[in-house]
Amino acid sequence: MSTTTTATQPTPAKPVFQRETTAGNYFVANYPPFAFWKKEAVPDFLAALEKPPRPHVPLGLYTHIPFCRKRCHFCYFRVYTDKDASAIRGYLETVLKEFAVYAGKPFVGGRKPKFVYFGGGTPSYLSPDQLKFLTDGMKKMLPWDEVEEVTFEAEPGTLTDHKLQAIRDLGVTRLSLGIEHFDDHILETNGRAHRSKEIARAYAFAREIGFPQVNIDLIAGMVEETEDKWKEAVAKAIELQPDSVTIYQMEVPYNTGIYKQMKAEGKLVAPVADWETKRRWVDYAYSEFEKVGYTVTSATTVVKDPAKVKFIYREGLFSGADIMSVGVASFGHLNGMHYQNHHDFDPYLEAVNSGQLPVYRALEPTADEHYIREFMLQLKMGSVSADKFRKKFGKDPREQFAKPLQRLKDWGFLTNGGDRIGVTREGLMQIDRLLHEFFKPEHETGRYA
Ligand code: SF4
After folding, report:
1. Whose CA is closest to 257, among 78, 122, 75?
2. Which residues contact 187 (CB under 8 A, 6 or more apart)?
3. How far apart are CA 128 and CA 126, in angstroms?
4. Looking at ligand 1, which atom is closest to the CA of residue 68?
5. For site-directed labelling of 293, which of 103, 421, 438, 443 has its Cα 20 to 30 A away?
6. Cα torsion for 417, 316, 164, 87, to the nearest 10°?
7. What is the mean pLDDT of the chain?
8. Using an 8 Å Cβ cutoff, are 74 and 219 in contact?
9. Among the residues of 227-334, which ranges form H helices?
10. Is the pTM of this model over 0.70?
11. CA–CA distance from 380 to each of 198, 243, 277, 327, 384 (Å)?
12. 44, exposed or middle or buried, with CB in 10 Å at 0-12, 13-18, 19+?
């Protein structure tokens, strides 16, 4: 018997993050953060459009539809609930004019789009005629014959059978239903426009007419959420057998109705579950889906059949594809530059109708920043291949990110996988705050939660 004792190293304590949900943005959607995109960089962005595309970079399209029936209390997007048919027609005509400017620029270089995304707002707020007008115009300028995926976000209460058929006929391959919850009281309390009956009807018809992929969105931690109601929501979602499910943890940015209410009442903590509870609820949902054969493919997604269900838009966004974004407040990435359009309706319309692109801020990330961006975004999918990054950027991420990876390892959030750098389930449930470990110090404006 050995009498040797090994001195054990104390495990570095996990960082103590904020527990309560307070006001602020939690999700890391891009890098460098939007606060560093500047109007001074717009001329460089315009110059980048005049160059041919970078080799082997696919082109995708994003079109922003900023209309909704009603503003949800947790919504932080710029949406309009007061536009009539003629204002909407004017908007769509403007979007097509903006599209035409891009379609004629050298950066397109003869490429045809590989994926198309309609986001909002509520794209399904548009009528079948308005949708046809928009998509016919887009297809005329950049044909969709090489498109592998068309995603369309929909609010269940806007979907009639006729409209769903029209959406299917446009070539949509993934219908993304913003269900958020199945409980009518929670839907109403949070300001959603739809109710459970509309979900059931829209889902059944979407299935009947054969969309290749139906995704449903849920939110963990809406106002008045409880353990029991969340479990019921997960059970109902499983019953539907969607192809994929996206689950967000409720955040409360400053421009939401919930924050306005907090401010009026002098409250610092939002009236929603704390972060630990939200993570536990998402983890519960994932475990229940796993029991019936689903696979967790990112911090926010479970998929029924990963061999069949792809997320081409997400893969493009996370790996540096060109994303030509049009519409008010939309943001995109072209020829190595980030850009964002005017936030407000009138300045957006005025810019395009006076013959300019409506871009109000841009940024050219450095080579290092591109590397950080892609690494961070791909880590949201649970793991990345070191080899893939070495081939693309000429540097091994295990060396490039030695210090932050060591911290994640010390805290118990990293899995050991040779070529694959992966995070544990516990790490994945809080990935957005862990990603700040990879930020350059000058980009850290304070992590939230
Ligand atoms: S439907 Fe979506 S975009 Fe529209 S108000 Fe609600 S959260 Fe915002």
Report:
1. 75
2. 180, 181, 194, 195, 196
3. 7
4. 4
5. 421
6. 140
7. 94
8. yes
9. 227-240, 257-264, 275-291, 312-318
10. yes
11. 32, 20, 20, 27, 9
12. middle
193 burial level (CB within 10 Å; 0-12, 13-18, 19+): buried
Q: Which of 154, 245, 254, 265 is nearest to 205 (CA)?
A: 154
The residue that leads in pLDDT, 416 or 144, is 144
Alpha carbon nearest to ligand 1 atom 3, residue: 121
Provide the token pair at 12. 């570095």
Nearest Cα residue to atom 2 of ligand 1: 121
| β 337-341/331-334 pair status | antiparallel
In angstroms, the CA 17 to CA 73 distance is: 26
Residue 195 and residue 183 in contact, taking contact as beta carbons nearer than 8 Å:
no
What is the Cα–Cα distance from 157 to 193, expressed in whole angstroms?
A: 7
Take residue 116 and report the two structure tokens written for it: 């198309």
Residue 122: CB within 6 Å of ligand 1?
yes
Ligand 1 pocket member 66 (CB < 6 A): no
Strands across the sheet with 414-415, in order? 383-385, 420-423, 414-415
Q: What is the mean pLDDT of residues 321-346?
A: 97
303-332 pLDDT, tens per residue? 999 999 989 999 999 999 999 999 999 999
Residue pLDDT, tens place only, 183-234: 999 999 999 999 999 999 999 999 999 999 999 999 999 999 999 999 999 9
What are the residues facing 269 on neighbouring strands? 22
Q: How far is the CA of 72 from the centre of ligand 1 (A)?
A: 6
pLDDT tens readout for residues 71-89:
999 999 989 999 999 999 9
**What angle do the packed helices 161-169 and 128-141 form, to 10 degrees?**
10
- At 18, the pLDDT band (50, 70, 90 cuts) reads confident
CA-153 nearest atom, ligand 1: 2
Tokens 């909407």 correspond to what residue?
88
CA-CA distance, 374 to 367, in Å (whole number)? 11
Q: What are the structural domains of the chain?
A: 34-316 (3.80.30.20), 366-433 (1.10.10.920)
Residue 102 has pLDDT above 90, yes or no: yes
Q: Which helix (H) or strand (E) holds 180?
A: strand 174-180
Residue 260 pLDDT greater than 50, yes or no: yes
Distances (CA, A) of 79 to 46, 82, 121, 165: 27, 9, 6, 25
